[in-house]
Amino acid sequence: MLSALARRAVSLVLSLVVASVVIFLALQAVPGDPAAFMLGLNARPDTVAALRAELGLEGSLAERYLGWAGGMLRGDFGTSYTYRVPVAELVADRVGVSVPLALLSLALTVAIALPVGLLAATRRGGPADWGVMGATQLGIAIPNFWFAMLLVLVFAVGLRWFSAGGFPGWSDPGGALKALTLPAVALALPQASILARVLRSAVLDTLDQDYIRTARAKGLSRRAVVWRHALRNALIPVLTIMGLQFSFLLAGAIIIENVFFLPGLGRLIFQGITARDLIVVQSVTMLLVAAVILVTFLVEVAYTLADPRLRRPRAR
Amino acid sequence: MRGSPTRGSPALWIGAAITAAVAAMAALSLVWTPHDITRLEIGARLQPPSAAHWLGTDQLGRDMVSLLMEGARTSIAVALVAVGIGIVAGVPLGLLAAARRGSWIDEVVMRGNDLVFAFPSLVIAILITAVFGPSAVNAILAIGIFNIPVFARVARGGALPIWTLDYVMAARVAGKGAARISVQHVLPNIANLLIVQATIQFSLGILAEAALSYVGLGAQPPTASWGRMLSEAQTMIYSAPSLALLPGLAIVVTVLGLNLLGDGLRDLLDPRLRRLRA
Predict the structure, then answer these.
(1) Residue limits of the ABC transmembrane type-1 domain (chain B) (predicted)?
(2) What tens digit of pLDDT does each residue of B134-177 get?
(3) Closest-approach residue (CA) in chain A for B234
(4) A228 and A194 in a common domain
(5) What ipTM was assigned to the predicted interfaces of this complex?
(6) CB contact, 8 Å: B252 with chain A?
(7) DSSP secondary structure string, chain A?
(8) Could you tell me if A249 and A162 lie in one domain?
(9) Domains along chain B with CATH numbers
(10) Taking the complete model, does pTM exceed 0.95, yes or no?
């Protein structure tokens, strides 16, 4: 098991390095000099040069990469070209929106998918199953940002239960949660549809196994079999998908934050893009990618630990 | 799930019909739309459906039917080329990895795939379009790059069991090289897997294109796209909510049709499932 974990750890580090190189190189391809852009057309060449040095834009490609990547590891994400404050500060302000949003929508995803998927699996072929399969087919086809607009139409424009966007800050916890509710629902719907389908087929797969028949034969009730045996064994594929879904939720949040004008990391990236504040784009993108890679790694570790079959080296 | 195993399920036929209808609308827009969408008629803005404008007009007086038809063309063109990139670059990689199973080539292809899968694709797509400028071509590239590992993985997974079969052995004994065997014997046998995957990636491509053009990183005006129609409608969601409904419905119907088609094709083409049902 240790060797399996070590291999995963190596591939984690490798992924992070490759990701950082790709992101760094991609942003080097952007035309234009940020220092000249910041100082405007009439800046004197020596002022521009001084600013370039201050922003860490001097030196060879390798030096600049190592400077940036080393800084990321120490928590120094660079200095924003437009705000003139450390990117880390900007990020700290926005993490409080994006992370709760992703967690809230993940919780909603599970809360919807678990009962719905189980219902479909235990009523296989019945009207409930057909209903769930039809509804989830629709849920997968709906773009989350359009669903978000529909939610705004109904609950903000029509019923006036929620505001159409904005974020009051966590000093008002009730208001903050309320502001995150519609975005979280919009993010959760397609993911819940996918998860419910995965859960259904995973449970159906395990229900076909011999040990389930044995459990039924020794007199366990159907309910006990489903909960104690089928669901537990179905959790491995479900956990894998949930890990992937976290990445979709983080990425999807970029779009959804723009629909609801939420001051999260996604909006920070977009503001960076429009303002040509490349260091913000570069560092925040890297943070998002790193978060996704880390979550995937943790999920893999979790199911290596959870599944005894993966713990022992292969007999073959 | 129901339906004759050889003639396909109702899902297949509904999906095929929807897909064909959307494709026909898109193709028709190349030669004819009810109105010219580059001509703005501010006087005729935000009209309700009428004989002249079947679905009304938008905030600039453009005919909604014409806009939706052109939007279909944009979506399909972007998603189709992106799928093409994935197939052209990914399938040979996957075939090569399978033919040289366990070699360093296989290792590089598979590890490279793991890496790309670990990336949140939408974030990278946004990065690509932001760096190289928003345009339909860059949207295609951004979506297409992520199709490459998908097709490589499917091709490799499908090809591996075929390499163990007797007729491949016979072909090797007959002196055929790995490349010829891959093209002549392996590729025809994994074609059905690739077709199903292509349908799925096509529908994901439509959603990705919509998301990119919604945030302004897709096709640029005057080209119509469903995603940008939605983002323009959002600013008027209080005054003209119907503008936000039609493009969204168009996306949902198209993606739903493609997903049904993909599911139906998988059931039809996968002999394993066919046996299970019988």
Answers:
(1) 72-262
(2) 888 888 988 998 899 899 989 998 998 888 888 888 988 888 88
(3) A149
(4) yes
(5) 0.83
(6) yes
(7) -HHHHHHHHHHHHHHHHHHHHHHHHHHHTS-S-HHHHHH-TT--HHHHHHHHHHTT--S-HHHHHHHHHHHHHHT---B-TTT-SBHHHHHHHHHHHHHHHHHHHHHHHHHHHHHHHHHHHHTTTSHHHHHHHHHHHHHHHS-HHHHHHHHIIIIIIIS-SS-SS----TTSHHHHHHHHHHHHHHHHHHHHHHHHHHHHHHHHHHHTSHHHHHHHHTT--HHHIIIIIIHHHHHHHHHHHHHHHHHHHHHHHHHHHHHTT--SHHHHHHHHHHTT-HHHHHHHHHHHHHHHHHHHHHHHHHHHHH-HHHHSPP--
(8) yes
(9) 10-29+61-277 (1.10.3720.10)
(10) no
